[in-house]
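Support case: user asked for a sample of complex input and structure output to validate their parser. Sending the pair below.
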Amino acid sequence: MLDVRSLEKAYGSKQAVRGISFAVEKGTVLGFLGPNGAGKSTTMRMIAGVLEPDVGDVLIDGKSIVSDRRGAQAALGYLPEGAPLYNDMTPPEFLAFLASARQMPKGQRKDAIERTIADARISGVLGQRIGALSKGYRRRVGLAGAILHDPPVLVLDEPTDGLDPNQKRAVRALIARMAPTKAIIISTHTLTEVPAMCHRAVLVDRGRIIADDTPEGLARRSDDGTLESAFARLTDQVEEATL
Amino acid sequence: MISAIRQHMSGFTATYRRELNAYFATPMAYVFLAVFLLALGLFTWEAARFFDSGVADLQPFFAWHPWLYMIFLPALAMRLWADERAAGTDELLLSLPLGLPGLVLGKLCAAWTVAGTGLVLTLPMWISVNYLGNPDNAAIALTYFVSLLMAGAYLSIGAAVSALTGSQVTAFVISVVIAFVFTAAGWPLVLSTVQTLFGTGFADLIARFSFITQFESAQRGVLELRVVAYFLGFTATFAFLNCLWASRRRLG
């Protein structure tokens, strides 16, 4: 469903991503983990076609992001880091804009928007401008935008970042509901939600994949069996953490 | 061929509607229209002595168009790309299966529509001169048309420059400077500077490409294809630069 092939990207002289490859099948939620600056967002931007890779390719539903960008992007739903949105629009206006931009057939737009509003649980804020919404609702509107066209592949950059526990649970539930029919990649800082949300965890550090395992398998690599210490150990942060 | 153009232009309608709504969803368009009309009226009546000329034409009114466009239209265009960058929504936009030319022209045409609305709202001036005398209506209609084309050229500068920066203020200032060079290129002050810097040949070239020179030939009431081609070509050039500068975002 999603095939990432030896991606590389440099910003000037700084090599942000140094050869990342992995594949995600339908029904899998992949947790994309790593310290800040490890290259997570850069990789996700390349998958979404926002950044051009220096080397490598991404196949989304069989279509190359390099040679058939629009074809690949049509099969992808993307939530950028921080869920940027148009503040001057209401959620239905925003979704209608996306439906039109994605050239959905006119007859299907209304149904798709209504289904998405129900799925993302945003029916209570339809009349408000996005700029006036709380962080939790903003994130859900962003998610609604990513799933509007029912894409087979979802890339969500920190979908639960900055949300309160209830909002996090709502977002996790939404992802769990969608999981069986899609290939989903989620980046997160909150390691405690990884076992609950992800079937597989890929750990990235300094632009490289350093572990690719189930969350349980990853946790077993530490002394005390927690994901936190496995994360710290694998990313060489042990000394800093104990200082 | 046609399907290729359609692919590149995909997103035009969605972008155009979104941007036009954004202008009118915020006070932006209303403030622009009110202040633009106020300034145009003030300059026409107070500075150009519209009534004292004793001639029923719109010459004193049109003469101010390039100067007001130079200040007001970069202000209208500065948000088009800089705002997307500041809010991070350009990332959302670039992740959509759209062609960049469609995005660029959709945004430009939305701003152009607001500027055109401003022009339409000056039509009472035209009616007034017809009430007062017998103006050359064909020449006035032509000048309105060329003024609209010229507005597109000014907006294309503002839109393209706005794709270079995440700051609307920076985009505005740089756009006004570029717009000033193209507006006043026929002026001795600008001309002599250009002459010193780049030589006489280039200065002559610049003088011929001055917006004011082109616009004045339209005011004489002769439809010169050269003038229409000039403003459309200018707009197309800056729209192309806009695509180029907006696509740099994909390179990181």
